[in-house]
Amino acid sequence: TWGGFYVVGAYKMSDSAESPTETQKEEIHPPPDDSATNDDKKKIDVLLKAVGDTPIMKTKKWAVDKGRTVQSLAQFISRFLKLDATEQLFIYVNQSFAPSPDQEVGVLFDCFGSDGKLVLHYCKSQAWG
Amino acid sequence: MADDKDVLRDVWFGRIPTCFTLNPDEVTEREAEPYYLLLPRVSYLPLVTDKNFPDVDLLHCPSNSVVEAHFMSSIKEADALKHKSQVVNDMQKKDHKQLWMGLQNDKFDQFWAMNRKLMEYPTEEGGFRYIPFRIYQTTSDRPFIQKLFRPVSTEGNPHTLFDLLKEMCPDALTKDGEEKRFQVVIHGIEPLLETPLQWLSEHLSHPDNFLHICIIPTPTD
């Protein structure tokens, strides 16, 4: 009999993670033509929105690697906003749920993206439970 | 239907006989004996293994609340797919807590008293908006496949497990005349590929409301 465990993804703190590339505010970066061979090389467009009194990102639109995790993106936002290392950052999809930190942004885009982008809200405190 | 409700119980009370052995690289004063546990299929490893358990380095879960947070985020993500989050958002915080406590304490009735709400849908729709699923392939680099997929076709026909696989990982399906290379496993069994996906979602989902589907190479023993 095959048996399996429901494994919760590990909280990996990766400081050497590459930063997402900044797109132009006006236009959306089209994916390169040769990216079809490797899904992970593709980037998706993410729009970051601040909640409550959380500082607003000067640049809101980012092209992010599909394979990038929510945790990695949260760390990037924290560093960009120069938040304290002890301060938590919560990320939300559809203003309704906080995805698991090990979830890939590409999957979130496929399932919850609209108008060619994934809108993520970020907050220093729990906004939607 | 009485038979369908029995499926919910069978899934909930499924167990996996497990044997943990100490890594041979670990040096101990006396020989470490293997550790046996009957693990509930639907539970999480940190909830089941006690504090004296030899360190299992699969994940970092410093407390139960981390597991709870993960569980609730899965429930909410599933409902975002099924009901645009309307059902889970209409529930009170104590209802969410009841889902978790039911799972944590292995209380089927307590859990399903709440979970049944997440399994409802408008009759005229014929099913959920999208089916929450994850397909795991041992032969793939990706952690899993998760995409949008409707339980009913545009013509109004129920989609089956076969339809899902054909769309998401057609290589897992056996072509005519070929030997069967892969098993499609949910909760340790191979459901018939013609099973309606909506039915699978309602009855064979894990407590987190996701259908976790494993594609494994057919054993050659």
Automatic annotation (TrEMBL), chain A:
**Where does this protein chiefly localize?**
cytoplasm
According to its UniProt record, where is this protein located?
Cytoplasm; Preautophagosomal structure membrane
In which domain of life is the source organism classified?
Eukaryota
- A GO-annotated cellular component: Atg12-Atg5-Atg16 complex
Claim: Acetylation is one of the keywords in the record: yes
* Biased amino acid composition, Basic and acidic residues: 23-40
- GO molecular function terms noted in the UniProt entry: Atg8-family ligase activity
A GO biological process of this protein is:
autophagosome maturation
Spell out where the chain crosses the membrane. none
Keyword Methyltransferase assigned to the entry: answer is no
Q: Where is this region: Disordered?
A: 15-40
What's the short name of a Pfam family annotated to this entry? APG12
Membrane topology per the entry is: Peripheral membrane protein
Q: Which InterPro entries match?
A: Atg12, Ubiquitin-like_domsf
| Keywords for this protein | Acetylation, Autophagy, Cytoplasm, Isopeptide bond, Membrane, Ubl conjugation pathway
Q: Into which family does the record put it? A: Belongs to the ATG12 family.
Q: How does it assemble?
A: Forms a conjugate with ATG5.
Which purpose does this protein serve, as stated in its record?
A: Ubiquitin-like protein involved in autophagic vesicle formation.
Q: What is this protein called?
A: Ubiquitin-like protein ATG12
TrEMBL record, chain B:
* Gene3D superfamilies xrefs: 3.10.20.620, Phosphatidylinositol 3-kinase Catalytic Subunit, Chain A, domain 1
GO MF term (any one)? Atg8-family ligase activity
Q: Which residues form the Autophagy protein ATG5 UblA domain?
A: 11-51
According to its record, how does it sit in the membrane? Answer: Peripheral membrane protein
Domain (Autophagy protein ATG5 alpha-helical bundle region) ranges: 66-120
A GO cellular component annotated for this chain's UniProt record is: phagophore
Which stretches make up the Autophagy protein ATG5 UblB domain?
A: 130-215
Protein family per UniProt: Belongs to the ATG5 family.
Q: What does this protein do?
A: Involved in autophagic vesicle formation.
Quaternary structure note:
Conjugated with ATG12.
The protein's name is Autophagy protein 5
Q: Which organism is it from?
A: Oryzias melastigma (Marine medaka)
Q: What is the lineage of its organism?
A: Eukaryota, Metazoa, Chordata, Craniata, Vertebrata
